[in-house]
């Protein structure tokens, strides 16, 4: 069995083992909370800073399901570092709003996408597919398996 095949199987096993936790977390950052977070960005509300915590929770969950010996891709890590670093609100940020807060929304969207894919493919797949669906392929890229 190749490294890739081994890690794909391990990722599926981890997705299955943590499925309930992933579903619960995804639900907690969806619906009203999702709508509110994006709205806060466009309404120039300091409450958009709360997206950072949601993003950190999702990134932590994605790290927990990582196959042994894999790490999250640096592209994702860079986005999350910029958008979920715990940056506190300062009134002077209002003068350059998008520079300070767009990274929060970007990181949230990326983390939420991977949470959605983890939930979806953890539920749909029993074995690694021969023909890769885009979301599954993205998960493999996230963990540097592909």
Short key terms for the protein model shown above:
67% helix; 146 residues; 7 helices; mainly alpha; elongated; single chain
What pattern of helices and strands is seen along the backbone?
Answer: HHHHHHH
Number of strands: 0
Please report the number of helical segments.
7
Which word captures the global form?
Answer: elongated
What is the average per-residue confidence, as pLDDT, rounded to a whole number?
A: 96
Q: Could you give the distance between the termini? A: 15 Å
Radius of gyration: 16 Å
Give the oligomeric state: single chain
Would you tell me the structural class of the helices and strands?
Answer: mainly alpha
**Fraction of residues in β-strands:** under 5%
> Percentage of helical residues?
55-70%
Task: Report the major sheet.
Answer: none
Low-confidence stretches: none
* Number of structurally distinct domains: 1
In short:
The chain has helices spanning about 5-15, 20-30, 30-40, 50-65, 75-85, 95-125, 135-140. The protein has about 150 residues and is mostly helical.
Task: Explain what you see.
This protein is mainly alpha-helical and 146 residues long. The protein has one domain. Helices cover 67% and strands 0% of the residues. It has 7 helices and no strands. It starts with a helix and ends with a helix. The mean pLDDT is 96.
Spell out the blueprint of helices and strands.
Layout: H1 3-17, H2 19-28, H3 31-42, H4 51-64, H5 74-83, H6 97-124, H7 134-142
Helix pairs in contact: 1-6, 2-6, 4-6, 5-6, 6-7
């Amino acid at each position: 069995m190749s490294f890739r095949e081994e890690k794909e199987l391990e990722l599926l096993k981890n997705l299955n083992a943590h499925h309930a936790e992933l579903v619960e977390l995804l639900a907690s950052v969806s619906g009203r909370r999702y709508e509110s977070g994006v709205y806060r960005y466009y309404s120039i509300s300091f409450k958009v800073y709360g997206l950072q915590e949601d993003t950190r929770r999702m990134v932590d969950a994605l790290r927990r399901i990582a196959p042994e010996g894999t790490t999250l891709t640096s592209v994702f890590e860079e986005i999350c570092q910029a958008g979920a670093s715990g940056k506190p609100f300062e009134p002077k940020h209002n003068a350059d709003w998008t520079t300070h807060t767009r990274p929060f929304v970007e990181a949230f969207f990326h983390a939420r996408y991977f949470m959605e894919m983890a939930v979806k493919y953890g539920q749909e797949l029993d074995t690694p597919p021969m023909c890769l669906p885009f979301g599954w392929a993205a998960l493999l890229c996230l963990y540097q398996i592909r």
